[in-house]
Amino acid sequence: MKLKFITTIIFLISYTIFSQNTYVFLGSYNRDKTAESIQVYQLDTINGNLTKVTSAKNTINPSYLTVSPNGKYLYACTDTRTPNAGSVSSFEFNTKNKNLTFLNKQSSGGENPVYLSVHKSGKWLVNGNYTAGSVSVHPILENGQIDSLAQNFQYTDGSVNKERQTKSHVHSTVFSPQNDYLFLPDLGADKIRCYRFDENQKQPLVETKVPFTKTDLEAGPRHFTFHPNQKFGYCIEEMSGSISVYQYKNGTLKKIQRINTHPDTIISGFESSDIHISPDGKFLYASNRGKENNIAIFSIAKNGLLKNIGYQSTFGNHPRVFALDESGNFLIATNMNSGNVTVFKRNSKTGLLDKVGNEVKMENVTCVQIKKI
Q1: Model confidence over 304-351: pLDDT tens digits?
Q2: Among candidates 12, 68, 16, which has minimal Cα distance to 42?
Q3: Distance from C-alpha of 130 to C-alpha of 108, rounded to nearest angstrom
């Protein structure tokens, strides 16, 4: 009886410590200022349930989100898909009061911002503008607000597809493992652009000897991620439905593999979207929209090469962005067209996914970020 009581106490303490401080941030395409276009949930890391804690209104199309390293601030691409507009916005997240408070916003430096990242120092915000084909850098003030634009680089080159690649379309802004380089997959130009990032300079983006890596023609590079061992980089290609694998060293990429994100029976209509690697470095996950609406699962060999081991339906339509929690135990997918968010438990040994918890409904949900605070 005493042992059972002690076991119960230990479980309750563990539940409180480990389950109640993991937060899930959701963004959406929503032009209605009265709508809760950003929503925040707590993730129960025992059973995968999501419990809503707060939200934010009066924000137009917060299509992509990122959380500051200390978890105090949330940053969003706003006024996305708005002609001749585009902004980046900051919010303060108070874990004690469970409040999300708007702080300020600045011009994104170009039309249609779709991705943004915070430097590990918490002092810099970098965003990519898809329609404008540009990258912008803003300092972040001590109070979490975004300062005025420090740098903006505009690109004009395109590639061979006359419908989708008439000009540059920067689709993501990804820091290297040491945060000393910045990579910019450019869907419109079939390039992965690169800058050195000097956090101590007023204008931190510095041109490199190798300013970009060419991808295959009509690849449409979209999102990018690095292996935890820092030796490999992986780029998902929206238009070709492929993943290119690169050896990485000191800001340079050398391609070593290209593999489909879809079964060989699917030969057209690719809409590959997001890509992430489990914290243990053993498995890679990639989302397929359109005809498939699934997560492709790959094992990662010691030499960085991928092998497809299966597919998991996201139980919705158009999984634009998904995320893994820091423990690697959970994967959460956002299905934009069906407006639902699905939680999966990840098997650390097999890499496979099982649907768990409750399903959340959110109109036009586009993005998810998970942060243990």
Answers
A1: 999 999 999 999 999 999 999 999 999 999 999 999 999 999 999 999
A2: 16
A3: 11
pLDDT tens for 276-306 read 999 999 999 999 999 899 999 999 999 999 9
Which is nearest to 274 in space by CA: 301, 330, 235? 235
Q: What is the model's pLDDT at position 20?
A: 61
Cut 0.85: pTM above it: yes
pLDDT tens for 341-356 read: 999 999 999 999 999 9
